[in-house]
Amino acid sequence: AQSVTQPDIHITVSEGASLELRCNYSYGATPYLFWYVQSPGQGLQLLLKYFSGDTLVQGIKGFEAEFKRSQSSFNLRKPSVHWSDAAEYFCAVGPTGGFKTIFGAGTRLFVKA
Amino acid sequence: DAGVIQSPRHEVTEMGQEVTLRCKPISGHNSLFWYRQTMMRGLELLIYFNNNVPIDDSGMPEDRFSAKMPNASFSTLKIQPSEPRDSAVYFCASSLETGWDEKLFFGSGTQLSVL
Fold first, then answer.
1. C-alpha distances in angstroms, B18 versus A48, B15, B112?
2. Which residues in chain A have their CB less than 8 angstroms from residue B4's CB?
3. Which of B64, B8, B69 is nearest to B34 (CA)?
4. What distance in Å separates the CA atoms of residue B70 and residue B76, rounded to the nearest whole number?
5. For testing the chain B interface, which of A27, A37, A101, A107 should be mutated: the one with the most B CBs within 10 Å?
6. CA A30, CA B53: separation in Å to the nearest integer?
7. How many angstroms away from the CA of B109 is the closest CA of chain A?
8. Averaged pLDDT for residues B23-42
9. Per residue in A25-74, pLDDT tens?
10. Per-residue model confidence (pLDDT) at position A20
């Protein structure tokens, strides 16, 4: 069965420090992978997506993610975190039949001054 | 474009009452999704429509939940009767359905509290 695992429920980093959020997936075919961000009181917004080609993808707000097929991972990174990056981040994989996208449980990012 | 519009933003009701959540997808989008978000279960897909037709409602928790999409610009999610365990944030999302990698556009959600 298809699934997405985000091992870290929450992460705290200092402003200016680097960030890596982990995501592992289980999928029978070539996955379509996404990272979404949810700010408090808001819906989810797409940060970046991977379909094929270069395994390092660039997204909005200075985020990037690297697809590693051998590790079934799609980790999100940012070299220098800003206080405004504090939010919840969701990794997702799709489609899993029709247009269904499966989301991970999310990782909440806290940024300290 | 105004994005996906959901109403109301907040709904507080008493157990047993009927609740109707509304969604206006982005104009031109062919697919519409209803998600429920709770701390315990995360983001769950309840149902999705393609060209106004329900494609998969296997995520609908029980018969108290129903969803309709009478036209391309409007959808409702109804809970009747509501129960305290239905308290959650309900999101509507839409997509263009032009490709398998098409991203979802989310509304701001409806925070439902059933007392």
1. 38, 9, 12
2. 43
3. B69
4. 9
5. A101
6. 27
7. 6
8. 90
9. 988 777 889 999 999 888 889 999 888 888 999 999 999 999 999 999 99
10. 97
